[in-house]
Amino acid sequence: MRQRKNLESLSNAEIVNLFEQLCIEQYDAMEGDEQARVNRLVWRIHDLEMELKSRPGDQRYELMKLFGHPNMQVRLSAAEANLAVDYASARREIQAIKDSQWFPQAGHAGMTLYFLDTGESKPT
Amino acid sequence: MLPKQSLSKSSRPRPLNARAMAGHIAGERMMAAFARFQTFAEKAGFNRDQPRVPAGNPEGGRWSGSDGSSQGSRTGIGGNGGPPLDQEQAPKQPPKEKTSRIKAAKALAKRIAQQLLRRAGPIGALITAIELAENYSQMPSVTSYQDAPKTLSELQQNAGKRRPGYEDHHIVEQGAGRHEGFSRSQIDGADNVVSVPTYKHHEITGWYNKPNKNFGMQTPRNYLRGKDWSEHVRVGHEAMRTFKVLK
Q1: Domain ranges of chain A
Q2: How far from the centroid of its chain's Cα atoms is residue B109's Cα?
Q3: Considering only CB atoms, which chain A residues are within 8 Å of B206?
Q4: What confidence tens digit (pLDDT) does each residue in A11-64 have?
Q5: Chain A closest CA to B100's CA: distance in Å?
Q6: Which residue out of A35, A50, A85, A91 would a mutagenesis test of the B interface target, given it has the greatest number of B Cβ atoms within 10 Å?
Q7: What are phi and psi of B203, to 5 degrees?
Q8: What is the pTM assigned to this prediction?
Q9: B6-10: Cβ within 8 A, 24+ apart
Q10: Is CATH 1.25.40.70 the right assignment for the domain spanning A2-118?
């Protein structure tokens, strides 16, 4: 709850910057197989996305500025956050990440597309 | 090939200059030496992750176990001497020095894979060869990362062989198997255990362990809880295909 209150006081731009920074940290943690750290970061990134979602008009589209970012995890997290906002654009970005064959993000992207296609994943 | 005279001057292939040629040859020689080292290491049964007697002990540094096998290793399929990754809890954080070494080697493995994709030139090959030499301890894993996807039977036939650069992977994870009440013979059976490149194993296990938006922030492992064997296999095979392990 304390983190949620802190996020409420941040502007959209500040949230996007923090999102980018945490995704870069997540990338680094994944490279070192630091699973506990990865999972903590995933949850913090999820909180940022939920904060944007809760704002009037659903402000997650702000994360689309991160499409094409040089860090593959930033791109992937931003794209997955926007599947419910702009499915076609988000899906194109995820497909591009899969096609890059830059792992492990290409693998995560491929599995996301698989579960979207089976209907097991329904973006909200 | 068309005769040279039929091509315009600008489109005729230009011969490599001496420097580029030297770089290309050096890179090829280094890759050949590296391949010879890997063959030697495999024949010798070298396993970088095999436990050793700790420092401070009179026999410090030596491999533990009278026959060179790791102490306390699992017998049978799956006991490759490396850390078990198919488990419920997240693995312990590796020591910082090992983390840095693994990170550097993984980054190198990915750069090589990308260079192969882009067919990078001779200078790229030479630089990569030099970096390979600097990460020699991780060479088997860096090399295995470049493996093309294999058929299921090819992956199954190498299970249990404790090859450097490879780890045994349970398609239906051991922890999941215990929860669902799958039999030990099913979990450790030849159909369920495959030999995969070490870094690919880490990547696949990492996917299973990470909270996932597709499943309402459950990990894929938790998502599969309560599902039957065929569902576990379906997802396991798809993961191996997506991570370019399985054809």
Answers
A1: 2-118
A2: 9
A3: 30, 33, 35, 38, 104
A4: 999 999 999 999 999 999 999 999 999 999 999 999 999 999 999 999 999 999
A5: 7
A6: A35
A7: -65, -45
A8: 0.72
A9: none
A10: yes
